[in-house]
Amino acid sequence: MRHAKKPSARRRRPRARSRSRSRSRGTRLLGLLALTVITLLTLLMIYGYEGTAGPSGEARGATREPGMSAAPKSPEPTSPPKRKGKAPASHSPGPTSGPGTFDTAAASGASVGTGTIRRYKVQVEQGTGISAEAAAKEIDAILGDPRGWTANGRDGFRLIASGPYDFEVKIATPDTVDRICGAAGLHTRGEVNCDVGDQVIVNLKRWNTGSPQFAGPLHEYRALIVNHEVGHRIGHGHETCPGPGRPAPAMMQQIDGLKGCRANAWPYDEHGTYLGGPSVP
Questions:
Q1: Whole domain around residue 202: which residue ranges?
Q2: Where residue 122 sits, what CATH number does that domain have?
Q3: What are phi and psi of 47, to 5 degrees?
């Protein structure tokens, strides 16, 4: 019976070396894989948080989504969520009536213009949903605009919160406007504004919605309201359209139709030219 020969030590060594080389290669592969993972994590940490806020709280950029290029893009404008069954707040006419009591804006400003400086307060009827301070800021900007009445070099204004005043600008509900203006014999019909006594009375509906005859932004129509009524206060009467295609005078009753003129909120243009028209008796 023949016995199998035992493998010599010389044959066993190469197998041992082969297993050693396999372990070495496996270790290197694991090391390379770990290094790759660490590198990827490092890159993600560096580039994945571009949109986080800096120390001042301002965003540094937009976080890139997978598949987007690294080039920065301007943010796309987003629309506010639509309210179902309700018009936007800025175009809601607001309440028709109110309590007839007013909040006075706790705001004041520097004098604007030269000549006769008239001090005025801003008041808003309670329950209208309008901030008296915000309204005062807007009216102050209107009266201080270089296209306003200060361009004549004779009239100036100063917003005050308390103390003696020359007139008040009051934003009131249509019913309250009718009551105050009607007491002076003026018929505002729940629709328009008036200047009576020491008061400029602004109809809340007009302040919130503008006019169908005025094809401009709401803040421009608010400027027309203020410029028209304050124009009466400083001595200007009504005017009419000076000609087709020309700017309608601020002292024109534009809510009744433009008669061929273009809607315009300002008594002067940017060059200081008066945008007037023929007087209306």
A1: 91-236
A2: 3.40.390
A3: -105, -10
Closest CA to 128 of 224, 198, 206: 206
Q: What is the total count of domains within the chain?
A: 1
CB 170 within 8 A of CB 189: no
Closest by alpha carbon to 205, among 108, 281, 97?
97
Q: With beta carbons less than 8 A apart as the criterion, state whether 239 and 252 touch.
A: yes
252 phi, psi to nearest 5 deg: -90, 145
Predicted TM-score (pTM) of the model is 0.68
pLDDT digits (tens, 9 = 90+) for 140-176: 999 999 999 999 999 999 999 999 999 999 999 999 9
The span from the CA of 45 to the CA of 43, in Å, is 5
CA 219, 221, 224, 225 torsion: positive or negative?
negative
